[in-house]
Amino acid sequence: MAGFDDSPDSAYFTPPLTTVRQNFDAVGRRSMDVLLQRINSPAETATRVVIRPELVARQSTIGRLRTPPAR
């Protein structure tokens, strides 16, 4: 099981919840850069920007140690 946006509480669930963390600072900075570029050069074509999120793997998705099956 996994969550999204790295809610502060997700690390305290049982088991701690794996989540996807977004870099909102980078999104905001890059958005402003693109907006200002478009204002200053409206004839330019659209810009596609990808800001990769970070997977924070916690125990909700990390496999458990398994004991060997009974014989």
TrEMBL record:
Alphabetical list of InterPro entries matching this protein: LacI/GalR-like_sensor, Peripla_BP_I
All residue ranges annotated as the Transcriptional regulator LacI/GalR-like sensor domain in the record: 2-61
Xref: Pfam families: Peripla_BP_3
Region forming the signal peptide: none
Key word Transcription present: yes
SUPFAM superfamilies tied to this protein: Periplasmic binding protein-like I
Gene3D superfamilies: 3.40.50.2300
GO molecular function: DNA-binding transcription factor activity; transcription cis-regulatory region binding
Top-level taxon of origin: Bacteria
Keywords for this protein: DNA-binding, Transcription, Transcription regulation
Record keyword Transcription present: yes
Database matches in PANTHER family: LACI-RELATED TRANSCRIPTIONAL REPRESSOR, LACTOSE OPERON REPRESSOR
The protein, known as: Substrate-binding protein-like domain-containing protein
Organism: Actinopolyspora mzabensis
